[in-house]
Structures are given as C-alpha cells and as structure tokens.
Design brief:
Length: 496
C-alpha cells in the first residue's frame, strides 16, 4: 500500500518493453490491456485512500523532500489519475479490433508500447511532487504521442504529427524556461518547498520580476499544451488523422492533464493571490475561453469530417474548463474541475463511435453516415446519448458541470458570459443534430443489407462510457465531491 503511488507509473513503464519483446501480436494487446486495468485498480485504491485519509506522500528511495524526489497524491491528482487510468483501461478494451484494422501488422507491438509509455507520462505528471519531473513526464507523454499520431493511415497523419511536434516542443520549452526561472529564484524544485519560498518573496524586488517572467512562460507553454484558443492549431489535425484509438485516448486525457498542470502551477506554486490579484490570470484566460466556446463551436458546424468536428468541439469544451478557472471562485473552479471528468466521459464515448464507424465503413465523413441509424443502431444510439451530454441536456453528466458553471457566472454578475455559455450549448445542438439527421433521416440510395453493427468488443467499452454519462448525470456525489474538495483547497491558497 505504501508503494502504490510509484507502482502506478511503474506498471505501464515495465509493460511497454514487454510488448516489444513478444512476437505474438495479440500478446502485446493483452499485456497492454492488463497493465491499464491494473493502473485503474490502483487509482481506485488511491482515490479511496485520499478521500478517507487525506493526501499521500511517497519519498523515492526513502529520501525525504526537498532533497529527494517525492510523489504527492492529493484529491486533485487522485481525480486526474482516476480519469486517465479509467479512460486508458476502456480504450485498450476497445482497441483490439480497431488497431488491427488501422495499424500495420509489423507496427502493432510498437503501437501498444508507445501507448503505455504515453500513459505512464500522463500518470507521472499528476503524481509527482517535483516541478522538473512534471516537465520530464510531459516530454515522455508528448514524444510517444507524436509517434502514435504519425501511425495514422493517411499521409496527412505525418504532417499532423510534425505540426504537433513543433507546437508541443515550443510549449514544452516555455514550460522548462518557467521552471528554470523558479529554480534560479528559490533553489528548489519540490512543489511544496517552491510554494513556501515563493510566498516569502517581496513584491517589489528583482525576484518579483523573475517570478512574473516565469508566470508568463508557464502560462503560454501550458496554453499551447491544453490547446487554448488561439494556440489550438495543432489539435484539429492531430485528432482527425491519428488512429481512432489514439484520438480516443488523447482527447479524453491529454488536455485534462494540461489543465491540471495549469491549476498546479497557478494555485499550488505561484499562489492564488499573486496570480489572480497581481497578474490577473482571470482576465488573461477569460477572452480566449469565450472565444474558444464561440469560434470553435461555429467552425465545428461546418465540418464534414466528423472526427474533425469533434476535435473543434473539444477546443470549445476546453474553453468551459478554463472559463471556470478564470472566475477565481469556488463554484467556477469546481465546475472547471468537474468538467474535466465529464468531458473525458462524453468525448471518449463519441470518439469510440467514430472508431466503430470507421471500422465498418472505412470513413467518418458526414455523407457516409446516411442510414447508419438503421445499419448500426447501437453505435448511433451511443452517439445520440453522448451528443446529449455534450450539449448539456439534463440527466447527463455534461449538464451538471455546465449548470454549476452557469451558477458561478451568475454569482459573479457576468450576465454576458452566461449568455455565451448558453449560446455555446445551442451551437452544439446544431452540429450534433447534423449527424443525427443524416444517420436517421437520410437513408442510403443503394439497397441496405441489414445490420452491420460494430463488434461487441467495441460496443461494450463505448456503452460503459455512455452509461457513466447517464449515471453521473443523475448521481453526481462522487465526482462533484472530489471536485469541490479540490476547489476548496485550491481557493484556500495552500498546497494540496
């Protein structure tokens, strides 16, 4: 039990080379699947322990912080780890048929190894208590993600991977410079030690200017990583041309971990008072967040590649998360954190639908959805329920976080922002309805040969996520409790 925080990262790191060593391709999938389910089981135990007993600190090699590297599992990191590992477990269960269709046979073992390395990096970001290790794990996850995107079937996948490589490298460099400036100012990299030393820096000294510069580099770098408008240009191509399994995994996890990093640096290291009162991070995030909600939703309406449509929808949903942060209130922060969880559920399910449609039809263009409501009834029903959650319809998970966000804007007296949130939901109705109308009300001209439903191995994880969207839209006690506890500690100005 004492080593669970480290085991969470070690499991996928140890299983990745095993996938490469096996000559049996199905064995690589089996090892990767078992590894992801093991990490999910560990995350459940960690989350339960943190909820009942408080934060867990694990010192690597028995060296206490700040001299040694420590893992620190608090309510926020436990929440993020639960999202990442849960999505990974369901994605690998979905992957068997999809990967066989979309990845060359000789690349299957490397594909699963890279997916596990990416998972290890994302988990490490959420678990580590060391600022430089956040950067190290970020690079581990990013480098594997570039390679995974480049494995897409179309040649444009290589261009998308290269574009993501350039933008991601710029973002990572900015983050590294920001961390370096913090180290030069404080002489430590441990997050809790950093927070205590930053708090003692006078506001009218050279150190304060260094701190402002570090904040600027970190904000730009993290905005690139989480695809905040207008630094989102890498995301649509990456999600569109990547293999279906990669799109599912990255869309549901990568940007959520980037939002977590923004919260960690802004509230736990630099401090809420300094970041929001002196540097006005709320104002910095507000306009890009609102622009993301409106512009990305409008662009999504005119897309005919449905994966690309959902990619622009993800940019809009990221806007809801950062909008909650920009409010600098308990309700806004709770809504932003909760929407990380809800968006992982809804977008993971919707991209699984795209993977199933691509498996059966070989395409995800809107015209190829004609008649799919009859030919793939379970798959398209999943799209309908996932779309309802994306719109924020009551009794779905998406409604809860948007409702809390609306309440937060009303409490702040931001009536125009409230109107923009409602408008964003109405725009979501339009682009989701385009797909539903085509699938159910535009039959194909050629003779249909009965049902061509997706394999059961694809339908089961897809409907688990749909079921979670409905369940957590009715009973929100667990995710909302974790989000509110995390928001309370963040707003108190203390480290988690």
């Amino acid at each position: 039990m004492n080593h669970l925080a480290a085991i969470q990262v070690i499991i996928p790191l140890l299983c990745a080379p095993l996938c490469m060593l096996l000559r049996w391709r199905t064995g690589a999938w089996l090892i990767a699947t078992l590894a992801t389910w093991a990490t999910f089981g560990v995350s459940l135990v960690l989350a339960r322990t943190v909820i009942l007993n408080g934060a867990i600190t694990y010192d690597m090699g028995g060296w206490p912080a700040p001299w040694g590297i420590s893992y620190h599992v608090d309510i926020l990191s436990a929440f993020v780890v639960l999202i990442v590992s849960g999505v990974a477990a369901l994605t690998l269960a979905f992957a068997y048929k999809s990967v066989q269709r979309e990845i060359r046979p000789e690349s299957l073992r490397a594909f699963y190894a890279l997916l596990l390395i990416c998972l290890a990096g994302l988990l490490g970001i959420a678990l580590t208590g060391d600022a430089f290790n956040i950067y190290v794990f970020l690079e581990i996850s990013s480098l594997s993600a570039y390679a995974l995107i480049g494995m897409g079937q179309r040649r444009r996948a290589l261009r998308a991977a290269f574009q993501y490589l350039i933008m991601g490298t710029i973002g990572a460099t900015f983050i590294l410079i920001g961390i370096g400036l913090l180290y030069s100012l404080t002489g430590t990299l441990n997050i809790q030690d950093l927070a205590s030393r930053v708090e003692m820096i006078p506001t009218s000294t050279y150190g304060n200017h260094t701190l402002i510069t570090a904040f600027a580099f970190l904000t730009v770098g993290l905005s690139l990583k989480l695809a905040l408008f207008p630094l989102h240009l890498w995301l649509p191509n990456a999600y569109t041309y990547a293999p279906s399994v990669v799109t599912i995994f990255l869309a549901a996890t990568a940007t959520k971990v980037a939002v977590y990093m923004l919260l960690r640096f802004s509230f736990c290291i630099l401090g809420q008072r300094f970041v929001f009162e002196q540097l006005t991070l709320g104002n910095i995030l507000l306009l890009p967040s609102l622009a993301a909600i409106l512009v990305a939703s409008l662009v999504a309406i005119f897309q005919y590649d449905i994966k690309r449509m959902l990619a622009y929808s993800s940019i809009a949903q990221i806007g809801y998360m950062t909008l909650g942060i920009s409010l600098n209130s308990h309700a806004g922060l709770s809504a932003g954190i909760l929407h990380m969880f809800n968006h992982a559920l809804m977008k993971g399910a919707l991209f699984m639908v795209m993977g199933a449609v691509a498996y059966r039809t070989g395409s995800v263009y809107l015209s190829d959805f004609r008649g799919l409501g009859r030919r793939m009834p379970w798959t398209m029903a999943a799209f309908v329920f996932g779309g309802l959650s994306l719109m924020g319809v009551p009794l779905t998970a998406g409604f809860i976080s948007k409702w809390i966000l609306l309440q937060a804007t009303l409490e702040a007296g931001w009536w125009p922002v409230t109107a923009i949130i409602l408008l964003g939901s109405l725009l979501a109705v339009i682009y989701i309805w385009r797909v539903v109308e085509t699938a159910y009300f535009n039959p194909r001209h050629e003779i249909e040969h009965g049902t061509e439903e997706a394999p059961l191995s694809m339908l089961l994880p897809m409907w688990v996520l749909i079921g979670a969207n409905i369940y957590f839209g009715i009973d929100t006690s667990i995710p909302l409790h974790m989000a509110e506890r995390a928001a309370t500690i963040l707003m108190s100005g203390g480290t988690l």
